[in-house]
Amino acid sequence: MSKESAAMPNKCSPSKGSTIAIFERLESEVRGYIRSFPILFDRAVGTTLIDADGREYLDFFAGAGALNYGHNNPAFKQPLLDYIERDGIVHGLDLATSAKKAFIEVFERCILKPRGLNYKLQFTGPTGTNAVEAALKLARQVTGRSNVVAFSNAFHGVSSGSLAATGNKEYRSAAGFPVAHVTFLPYDGYLGPSVDTLDYFEKLLNDPSSGLDKPAAVILEAVQGEGGINPASFQWLQRLRELTSRHKILMILDDIQAGVGRTGKFFSFEAAEIVPDIVTLSKSLSAIGTPMSLVLLKPELDVWSPGAHSGTFRGNNLAFVTARAALETYWADSKFEEEIASKSVILAEELESIVNDFPRLGLSVRGRGLMYGLVSQKLHSLPVQISREALHRGLVIETCGGHNEVLKFLVALTIDDADLRRGLSVVRDCIGAVQENIALDSRGGATRTPTD
Ligand SMILES: *Cc1c(COP(=O)(O)O)cnc(C)c1O
């Protein structure tokens, strides 16, 4: 078939309009993000999303952390096009391919060696949750124990093993059967700044009558993403590492969202100077948005028998090409980390200034690197209102946390200072506009009272 005939419209061809009616008619009610952003997106470049009518939006969402290097970054787009052009292997199960070999080499040279890390690599199915499944299975196999400790507000995915370690009530109840074999403990800060929640964990471990079945592993995020941008302190992470080592409990660090530079270093745990036993990576690892997941495991834990955690799409060669290009482009020296640090200062300072300029709203800020949340503890509905208002003004920004009480700033790490400041000023304007509505409502007894 020639290119021309393939492009000739026929009875199967799609329509040209920019409505999203067909999604409402035919796509399952499980639809999520499209409800927050009901727009037909068409193209994207860097930190700009462009809809089917040509309207531009500034992206402060970055694919929930899957687009740390922005959209269609030319540094990986061109190698990807070249690879396809020369008929490089696209699908290869877990066969050896030159694209995979190159990725593994570059990962060892650029990421593992300079950090003194000694891990083997397991390529799982391409979703983050599959990496978490593999990590949990492995920890249970190695230790022969079934229980796992996870933390309040954790998010690790929605397949049943990962879901069992995820706190969110809606996700958990969707399973339809009890997701089990996980004990939840309070994450750092859960009981306020004056309580070290690890006192409780340590006591449980040392007390044979505590009722805690000794866990195979603890699984955690160093900065919780979906759970509300909660950064664990370095001391807490260090103490957890020490505690788990002492009790021969494996530490699984889920770096699917906080990794790949998001918190300022390649791994979120680097700054705390701890070494987890198992690390999961996904989201931004492939760099251009193609799915790819990776489990890093200490060599002595590699008890897998061949093919025991199988999958048709283990190792996405297109993702290997772009992931490798990203590592070579951004992680060969420390320049990128320095850029992230300087943008982090801009973001944190402006958010603090917003907090101070709207004292009535009782906002607060938390985060690390370019992973920040503006928290509305007094008025849980505020972030959703801000996000809606922002969309009208051409800014895409999401919310997170158990009550959606956190406005989530996940900009591309490659964003330039001007775009970062521009988006922040839109957020500031939106808060001003939303605040006016709230004032009106409480004075006038009103049409639109905050629901909480
Ligand atoms: C997104 C995420 C996952 C799940 O990844 P999927 O690709 O959506 O399955 C797991 N853990 C964390 C920390 C995440 O942010």
TrEMBL record:
Extract the InterPro entries matched here: Aminotrans_3 (IPR005814), Aminotrans_3_PPA_site (IPR049704), Dat (IPR004637), Ectoine_EctB (IPR012773), PyrdxlP-dep_Trfase (IPR015424), PyrdxlP-dep_Trfase_major (IPR015421), PyrdxlP-dep_Trfase_small (IPR015422)
Query: What pathway annotation does it carry?
Result: Amine and polyamine biosynthesis; ectoine biosynthesis; L-ectoine from L-aspartate 4-semialdehyde: step 1/3
Q: Does the keyword Transferase apply?
A: yes
For this UniProt entry, the molecular function terms from Gene Ontology, in alphabetical order, are: diaminobutyrate-2-oxoglutarate transaminase activity; diaminobutyrate-pyruvate transaminase activity; pyridoxal phosphate binding
Task: Tell me if Transferase is a UniProt keyword of this record.
Answer: yes
Question: Which cofactor is essential here?
Answer: pyridoxal 5'-phosphate
User: What's a single GO BP term from this record?
Assistant: ectoine biosynthetic process
A UniProt-annotated Pfam family: Aminotran_3
Record key words, sorted: Aminotransferase, Pyridoxal phosphate, Transferase
Q: From what superkingdom does this record's organism come?
A: Bacteria
EC numbers for this chain: 2.6.1.76
Return the similarity comment: Belongs to the class-III pyridoxal-phosphate-dependent aminotransferase family.
Its recorded name reads: Diaminobutyrate--2-oxoglutarate transaminase
Task: Name its species.
Answer: Mesorhizobium metallidurans STM 2683
| This protein's encoding gene | ectB
